[in-house]
Design a protein that fits this description.
The strands form 3 sheets. The chain has a 5-stranded mixed beta sheet with strand order 1-2-5-4-3, covered by helices on one side. A two-stranded parallel sheet has the order 6-7. A two-stranded antiparallel ribbon has the order 8-9. The radius of gyration is 47 Å and the shape is elongated. It starts with 13 loop residues before the first helix and ends in a 43-residue tail after the last helix. The chain has 5 helices and 9 strands, in the order αββαββββαβββαα. With 291 residues, it is of the alpha/beta class. The protein is 16% helix and 19% strand. The protein has a domain at 14-132: Beta Polymerase, domain 2, CATH 3.30.460.
């Protein structure tokens, strides 16, 4: 069944055609896993991309992406700026690279593809690569006043500063990074490196050792120590038995604590009349009234 989308173009002869179009500006070219990568000189990136766009048989009309890569092992020119191009007529993709450092700018390609303005700003923000000819080279992903470039390999994972909203100042404030705890180093027995306490059953508790060092205590020494500790335990004495209140210290029950037996009243009998209590005088009588 025929398809509307064009088929993928083969890479046969693509490197030779690119070398003829770019000329001496081409530094390196290779085809790996079906992808063609070209490395060109930094100062010749604009003419090279124009040649890849306008040469018949190549016709890479569209810029899809500009990415940055950091290779610290490469020395001074540790950064690479990678351009991903797409040919709409041939349904083919190609990758173009340039090498640079943080001091020498890369010529901007905004005159060829205006969309490159945003893409170059991302590379500048993340890696610190400068682009000569970009009229609006500002940070685009990080906050105002951000320090450093977070996609560099030597940038710390925690950053340099942290921000929070201050209720006192009623604004966002920047503070140095404060870690709640140190980084944990996991080992077989103790989860913390350099602990000052001894874990129960830890054979490495004698002295702090280097990582991977053998324990100075042998298995026979540990077994003998456990046996000696078991023999040193005192024998269990006679079980204390409390059979009498004298042993427990408990006295006789108080009479008031036992319920008294009261006679059960016949419900058919008339209620008993209450005897009036004798009125007593609070003040004593004079002696003459007692006679």
């Amino acid at each position: 069944m025929p398809t509307v989308a064009p088929r993928y173009a083969a890479n046969d002869g693509l490197i030779d055609a690119a070398r003829a179009a770019i000329g001496d500006a081409l530094v390196e070219a290779y085809d790996k896993v079906g992808e063609v990568s070209l490395t060109v000189e930094r100062e010749q990136i604009v003419p090279a991309l124009v040649a890849l766009r306008d040469t018949p048989g190549l016709e890479y009309q569209q810029l899809m992406e500009i990415a940055g890569v950091d290779y610290p092992a490469n020395g001074a020119e540790r950064f690479e700026v990678v351009y991903h191009l797409l040919s709409l007529t041939r349904n083919s993709r190609i990758r173009v690279r340039v090498r640079t450092d943080e001091a020498h700018p890369v010529p901007s390609v905004t005159g060829i593809w205006p969309v490159a303005g945003w893409l170059e700003r991302e590379v500048f923000d993340m890696y610190g690569v400068l682009f000569d000819g970009n009229s609006d080279l500002r940070r685009i992903l990080t906050d105002y006043g951000f320090r450093g470039h977070p996609q560099r390999k030597d940038f710390p994972l925690t950053g340099y500063v942290e921000l929070r909203y201050s209720e006192t100042d009623k604004r966002v404030v920047y503070e140095p990074v404060k870690l709640a705890q140190d980084y944990r180093t996991f080992e077989f027995q103790s989860p913390w490196e350099g602990a000052s306490y001894t874990l129960p059953g830890d054979e490495k508790a004698a002295l702090p050792q280097a990582k991977g060092a053998m324990t100075p205590v042998t298995a026979d020494q540990i077994k003998r120590a456990d046996t000696a500790e078991a023999k040193a335990e005192p024998p269990a004495g006679d079980k204390k038995v409390t059979d009498t209140p004298a042993d427990t210290g408990a006295g006789k029950p108080h009479p008031g604590n036992t319920p008294s037996e009261k006679p059960v009243r016949d419900p058919s009998a008339p209620p008993a009349q209450a005897t009036p209590a004798k009125e007593e005088r609070s003040d004593p009588l004079p002696p003459e009234e007692h006679e």
